Amino acid sequence: MSDLQSAKAWTAELEAAFIQSRKEGLAAVNPNTFWSVALILLSFSAWDYFVDPARWRVAFGIRLVAVLVIIATGLFQKLPGKLTWLPLLAKISDVRFRNPVFPGETVTIEVKKKEVLGGFTMMSGNIKSGDKRVLTVEFAVAWKVPGATP
């Protein structure tokens, strides 16, 4: 079949069915893979510590914010009827590094919803290692429906 013939065979209904099957397939996989992605992303901080022990905290902080967004996305997708919405990181502010974290320490990540303004959710987060606060951050998330026009 030539490219022209296959393009003619691709109807709007077939396109809609394809898009829906992709959404359902991703929705079936995503609710449980976000934990693995978050752990893998944080594990790269060990490499940063090995390569550049003096400045690895900056990369760790950036990865930590990304992990917070990944976990928030994964938890949100687990809510009934919410698999069609995606959170997009809209703003990061007031990031503070308080104490170092060393390999082998266990960290606790806390995220709190502060307020909702329009389509944005303002949140704050912190990371603790034991009783020590390691990092604090303020951020905003915009909720987007995939495929919707802005």
How big a fraction of the residues is strand? Answer: 25-35%
| SS field, number of helical segments | 3
Backbone structural class: alpha+beta
- The shape, in one word, is elongated
Rounded mean pLDDT is 78
The CATH class, by name, is: Alpha Beta
Low-confidence stretches: none
Helix content: 40-55%
Major sheet summary line: 4 strands, antiparallel
Order of helices and strands: HHHEEEE
What is the CATH architecture descriptor? Roll
CATH superfamily: Hotdog Thioesterase
Give the SSE layout.
Layout: H1 3-9, H2 12-51, H3 56-77, E1 86-97, E2 107-117, E3 120-129, E4 132-144
Antiparallel strand pairs: 1-4, 2-3, 3-4
Helix pairs in contact: 2-3
Structural write-up:
46% of the residues lie in helices and 31% in strands. It is of the alpha+beta class. It is elongated. The model has no long low-confidence stretch (mean pLDDT 78).
List its traits:
Thiol Ester Dehydrase, Chain A, alpha+beta, four-stranded antiparallel beta sheet, 150 residues
